[in-house]
């Protein structure tokens, strides 16, 4: 279980996360809903160690993440698909998928196994595997970003506004893929951010609302748009 205990983040004296506490129970999918600027990306980047806490703690299964540098968080099995996809345009899709495994120094058989399992979950990525990253559409890029996060995620996966900008058919496909992930990786903990609860119907029933850096438990039905 991943837990934030009174996590506070400040930018230049301005508090952006206000003593945020919540739990992500193992194997559950939690959505975090909040308007532009509410602090969704900041929350995910803080979990990844890309932004420093000015107070509070983050733990995973009781281990304080303060002991783990940012590059070590992926090694703990925390996968992250940022809002901006950051694909390497000159690398093929497959090379983009393999990038995080190089950083993790995974052996070849584990790497092949993970790649196979990602292709099984997302057969469209196998079809795109030889294409240069730079030639993909925005929606295809989001799928690669999900695949790349899945290459790393043995415990937790953090998805920042994955549905943003997806055409309805692609959003449906993405939601179906997430449902498959939940079905086939029952131990994996998911946190998905979104600005509108409408896009998340069927993804989960557990929701957090974030407003001006404050987080509270809610339900999808009650979440404000
Ligand atoms: N590097 C930064 N320096 C200063 N302020 C920042 C920085 N990054 C984010 N902020 C501020 O922190 C607040 C939260 O931003 P954040 O990006 O987490 O929001 P968000 O919920 O992800 O919004 P969006 O839906 O637009 O992606 C905003 O007020 C933003 O202006
Ligand atoms: Mg954001």
From TrEMBL:
GO biological process: L-amino acid transport
Keyword Kinase on entry: no
Record flagged with keyword DNA-binding: no
Superkingdom to which the source organism belongs: Bacteria
Keywords: Amino-acid transport, ATP-binding, Nucleotide-binding, Transport
Family (UniProt): Belongs to the ABC transporter superfamily.
Protein name, entry field: Branched-chain amino acid transport ATP-binding protein LivF
Source organism of the structure: Lutibaculum baratangense AMV1
